[in-house]
Amino acid sequence: MPNEPVFPRSIAPPAANYAHAVVSTSTTRWLHTSGVVPVGPDGEVPVELGAQAETIWANIGAMLDAADMDMSDVVSIATYVIPGLDLAPVMAVRDQVLDSTLVASTLLVVAELAQPAWKIEIAVVAAR
User: Fold this and answer.
1) Using CA atoms, how far apart are residues 48 and 92, in angstroms rounded to an integer?
2) In this structure, are residues 45 and 52 in contact, taking their beta carbons and an 8 Å threshold?
3) What is the pTM of this model?
């Protein structure tokens, strides 16, 4: 497997379902996304946070597919959320989409995103 999670025994375990780091070996292709936002193909933005996360991951899936990659190629995620949200739906969608793939993951709470309707934005790096 070219992408392997890294769990140093000399540091505390991750705080959630992610890897401290991911090492990529023998990769020939990389995909770096911009911040992926919760806008569906029809231009609509769901109101509910879980639905926004589902829309974003569907958009990421389409990008991966277009690059001849899949979710198992994702090695790093940066998730941006606005303050005051219950993040359980965000984590549940992420865990469902990634299945058992552990990736390096960073969560940032930001004052606001580019559009008032957006509650979440996600950027990923994939390697194959």
Assistant:
1) 14
2) yes
3) 0.89
Q: Is the alpha carbon torsion for 117, 115, 59, 103 positive or negative?
A: negative
Domain boundary assignment for the chain: 3-127
Q: 122: which strand partners? A: 36, 79
Name the nearest CA neighbour of 75 among 52, 103, 50. 103
CATH of 3-127, one of 3.50.30.10, 3.30.1330.40, 3.40.50.2000, 3.30.230.10: 3.30.1330.40
Strands 3-6 and 30-32: what pairing? unpaired
pLDDT at 80 (0 to 100)? 98
User: What interhelical angle do 49-66 and 88-98 show, nearest 10?
Assistant: 30
pLDDT at 16: 85
Measured CA to CA, the distance from residue 15 to residue 8 in angstroms comes to 14
- Provide the residue type at 96 as one letter: Q
pLDDT along the chain (128 residues), means of 10: 83 88 83 96 97 98 96 96 97 94 95 97 95
